[in-house]
């Protein structure tokens, strides 16, 4: 393995170990010595890559942010209705939070550290929900009389609630929970005739969706 | 002031000071010396009332739980529709979280400390939502085809989301946010003819409601 490649692997290992420590013990209580030990490197190697705990947390957040953008980008492929994309994005976010400790920790860090000036992951998610609802409105697939801002409030509130409740009980991030949420919301959101074209279970993204 | 009364006041002051410290610094970082100083009593007086930080946290949670039960009980008065009571209960919970640091801290503690065996405040709230939706179903005021469990998921998820998002930005717990949420949800929940009898802004509880 080349030196550069090895350094990149060490850095990735440290980010993952830090995310695990932050998720388990919280940012304040997580200890750098535990993080380096868990990544299988010396404290010196940790400090070569990251100046301090704040730098590690920033790296976890940056990676979580990239992961969030990745799953949202993935559900955009195919030419489907914006409301279906929103449904799929929520499923993808929940799956990411279930499966990926770096994403989970990145979302949690936003509320554990002092607020920075950068966009938090929650705000990024809110921007995504806003964008997709505006897209649905411009498609003409949003039911009449639905106030977009009310729906952004409801969808962002609920998904952030699932994220937080899912820390103690992963059931809140299950496919079943997210499907139930969209069974509740889609009939309120969709214009007449559109509901039958929406699937609250989300479309699998393994093959291109056909609409 | 009688001795007993003075002791009760000191205890209350300590609970409030602890709630403020937990909400500001988190349970782990809150320090007993700061709590006693902020309550204007000696560390010895604190230890007379509370054995340790865990005992203080338990007292904060117990008081928050009593406050939650109080606001829910208050909105039950009057003979109104269960869906209106649920709307009013959500407004009352948001107001409690906005105004009362003990309630706010009590909700936060549930996720900061190791999980105990006692019912958390979030679970109490979930029980309340479940009960009111079942009541609406038995009244016949729930729209056909609405799965109660999906609605419990959505309403609990959203309100817990508002609680968490409201820590950084109180706008998420404002009357405007909660009203927007119910404007989004009531048309989906209410049976035909019932919607016109519901007010998403919540009914003021200063005088008995007339239905």
From TrEMBL, chains A, B:
Residues 8-68 form the HTH tetR-type domain. Gene3D superfamilies: Tetracycline Repressor, domain 2. Transmembrane segments: none annotated. Keywords: DNA-binding, Transcription, Transcription regulation. Residues 31-50 bind DNA. This is ScbR family autoregulator-binding transcription factor. Pfam families: TetR_N. InterPro entries: ArpA-like, Homeodomain-like_sf, HTH-type_TetR-like_transc_reg, HTH_TetR, Tet_transcr_reg_TetR-rel_C_sf. SUPFAM superfamilies: Homeodomain-like (SSF46689), Tetracyclin repressor-like, C-terminal domain (SSF48498). It comes from Streptomyces silvisoli.
